[in-house]
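A quick aside before the break. I want you to see a complete sequence-to-structure record at least once, exactly as it would be stored in a machine-readable document. Don't worry about memorizing anything.
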Amino acid sequence: MVDARFGPSRGECGHERGTEGAMQGMDAGFSLLELVVTVGLAGVLCAFAVPRMDRELARMQVRAAANRVAGDLAHARGVAIREGAGAVLVLEPAAECAPRFRGRRGGYQYRVGARGQAAERMRRVNLRAAGGRVCAEVNGADSVEFTSRGLPRGFHNRTFWVWQGAVADTLTLSAVGRVLRVR
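That is the input. The structure line, written in tokens, reads:
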């Protein structure tokens, strides 16, 4: 339909009437080249993001395990004072948590309880319960004993290393029973 004064009549979108169906077919989707480029860019971005997320996940798992060890050291100290007989935290050695340096003991499970208590009655803690391949190491003997006054037995600091891969966290138990965290 042509109006001499205004030219061909147009629809709402500005296309000539009668050609709307043809235009919709051309604008309805993406070309194969556009899809391939978009998927390729998404793949490159994921290749950079995934290793960083793995490292951050390991960092969170190590921090959670270190918090667990610090809490259990404080619990053992409290048990020693409350019971008046001392308490102990014993690290159970594990082959897959071989210590990185000589003079350390490594494992991912430990027991906490009053000194003299049967091993079966002590509370067993698994650092891998929340996921991950977390390991812990301690310098010196594989156990930390607290006296009935809540002081660690022996007059030296004890250091715990909690690690997974290249990510590590360090706890130091002072000679007066305080837990210090080094990051």
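Two observations worth writing down. Helices lie at 20-27, 32-83. The mean pLDDT is 83. We'll return to this after the break.
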